[in-house]
Amino acid sequence: MTNNANKSSLFSGVGGIVIAGAVVGLISALLVKMGNPGNMGFCIACFLRDIAGTTKLHTAAVVQYFRPEIVGLVVGAMAMSIVSKEFSPKGGSAPFTRFIIAAFVMIGALVFLGCPLRMVLRLGGGDLNALVALAGFAAGILVGIFFLNKGFSLKRTYTVNKAEGFAFPVALVGLFVLSLVVPTLFVVSEKGPGSMQAPIIMALAAGLIVGILAQKTRLCMVAGIRDLVLFKDTKLLIGFCSIIIAALIGNIAFGQFNLGFAGQPVAHSAHVWTFLGMLVVGFGSVLLGGCPLRQLIMAGEGNADSAVTVMGYIVGAAFAHNFGLAGSAYSAENPVGGPSANGQAAVIIGIIVLLVIAFANSKKAKN
Amino acid sequence: MKTVDARGLSCPQPVLMTKNALASNEKQYEVLVDNSTAKENVTRFATNSGYKVSVEEKGDDFVLTLSK
């Protein structure tokens, strides 16, 4: 069957990515208005960390909640990929290496206090600390690109059984339903970010919509900058910018905009660690082939490697809180905030581990 | 005709392999991919590089023919 390569509809073009970005930005501002923590309409790192908390994989009392947004994202992506015949169960591309990279990506993100998507949303909320994060993120992406050009590859995937492709979405939905039916099994924060929640139905719907759009448009924070540098391709970067602008408009409309470094919600101003934490995120995400949002979407499309990656994020989050690695937000006692010595050490270890993995999997060194 | 086999690989690798292959500046290439994202990205890159792209579906794979 021959088809026109450019038939690709509204959503694979630039118009689609602008719309998708705008919807993500506006929905994010709305979720904050409806109860989510500041500049946290979406944060894949924070939300997976909350899920790790509610299932008691860590016991940080302020960040425990089964975020419905995550469930919506995965189910939305799964539904969309089935409809568009893009659901494709596959796996086998260095799963455990991906798990390790993902764990460090999560630790880097929690040192900064946000995944790349929340970094973008923080920019749209006026949080200038996110500019430092963006610089670190971009630096990390450049390091990753250096290795891509050296032939870095985690090798190919293979088709697996349908059941394997559905295993992650089904397990996630099953756990979520369990959290609604037998809530006493789970813990939910009574104060702190974990206690700040948009209504469940709304959070679920928001996730579904963004999951559908992100599947359709391949929205990815890391690919935006990566593809600009590698291929002079601006499509995904336009989505990135569209989110910032829409979040900015939404935040101004809802009175949530606050320009500056100090006093930002769930944030700190330890710039060196913000930079280095996001460097780990950018570097690791290039090695993984996509940001945490994109990994969740691909897990919904039946990619078992991405499912393993998401598990790596969750375990990384559990380690981050069990070992006190995550950055501390501003508080009266700690007006700058930032990561503890443990967190700083973990970031340095993360950079070293990623370098070792990148060298070990670069083609020209071997074949 | 030069063939780039990028099956099983996810982006950016298929585009990167295509980019490296295009450096030899031949009239026609065949690029094999197995996912829609790679199909779209390789198509976009090749089109921007001045190639015409036609896509054929073969089982689970896509065969992209790039020609000048």
Helix content of chain B: 25-40%
CATH topology of chain B: Translation Initiation Factor IF3
Order of helices and strands of chain B: EHEHEE
How far apart are the termini of chain B? 12 Å
Widest sheet: strand ordering of chain A = 2-3
Number of helices of chain A: 15
- Strand residue content of chain A: under 5%
The CATH class of chain B turns out to be Alpha Beta
> In total, how many domains does the architecture of chain A comprise?
1
Give the CA-based shape of chain B: globular
Number of helices of chain B: 2
Report on this model:
Chain A has helices at residues 9-12, 14-33, 44-54, 68-83, 95-112, 116-124, 129-149, 162-181, 200-217, 221-231, 235-253, 271-288, 292-300, 304-322, 341-360, and strands at residues 2-3, 90-91, 158-159. Chain A is mostly helical and 367 residues long. Chain A has one domain (12-365). In chain A, strands 2-3 form a two-stranded antiparallel sheet. In chain A, helix 10 runs antiparallel to helix 11. Residues 1-8 of chain A have low confidence and may be disordered. By secondary structure, chain B is of the alpha+beta class. Chain B has a single domain, classed as Translation Initiation Factor IF3. Chain B is built from two helices and four strands. In chain B, strands 1-2-4-3 form a four-stranded mixed beta sheet, with helices on one face. In chain B, helix 1 (13-22) packs parallel to helix 2. The A-B interface holds A 1-6, 8, 12, 84, 86, 88, 90, 93, 148-149, 153, 155-159, 218, 223, 226-227, 230-233, 235, 289, 298 and B 7-13, 15-16, 19, 34-37, 39-41, 43-45, 47-48, 53-57, 60, 64. Strand 1 of chain A pairs antiparallel with strand 3 (52-58) of chain B, so a sheet runs across the interface.
